[in-house]
Specification:
The protein is an alpha+beta fold and about 80 residues long. The chain has four helices and three strands. It has helices at about 5-10, 15-20, 45-50, 55-75, and strands spanning about 1-5, 25-30, 35.
């Protein structure tokens, strides 16, 4: 990891973009702002991704499981 100022990045943009391919570059802007420059890797779709569910589908499944568990434990009293 390398820490540089925003002016250093501005003056040597190509250099730091090349370095960001292999390491994290932290950019300090003033006292209170910090940014991270790094290469973003994209995931190729695979079998795990094809089996994924949406957040809404997950919530529906969880609700059904919770209702089932309560019924098994408390019967129709709930």
């Amino acid at each position: 990891m390398r820490v540089i100022s925003s002016s250093e990045l501005r003056n040597n943009m190509e250099k730091y973009l090349d370095l960001a391919a292999d390491e994290k570059i932290v950019i300090q802007r003033g006292r209170n702002e910090t940014f991270v420059l790094m290469r973003e890797d994209y995931l190729a779709p695979d079998e795990d991704l094809k089996r994924a569910v949406s957040a809404q589908e997950l919530l529906v499944g969880i609700e059904a499981d919770v209702r089932k568990a309560f019924r098994e434990k408390y019967g129709d009293r709930v």
